[in-house]
Amino acid sequence: MRYFKKIPGDRIYLSPINPDDYEQYYIWMNDAEVADNIGLASQIYSIQKEKKILDEMASSGYHFAVIRSEDDKLIGGASLHDINQRSRNAQCGLYIGDAENRGKGYGTETLRLLLNYGFRTLNLNNVMLKCFSYNKQGIACYKKVGFKLIGERRNSCFVNGQYHNDMFMDILAEEFYNNA
Question: pTM for the full model?
Answer without folding.
Answer: 0.92
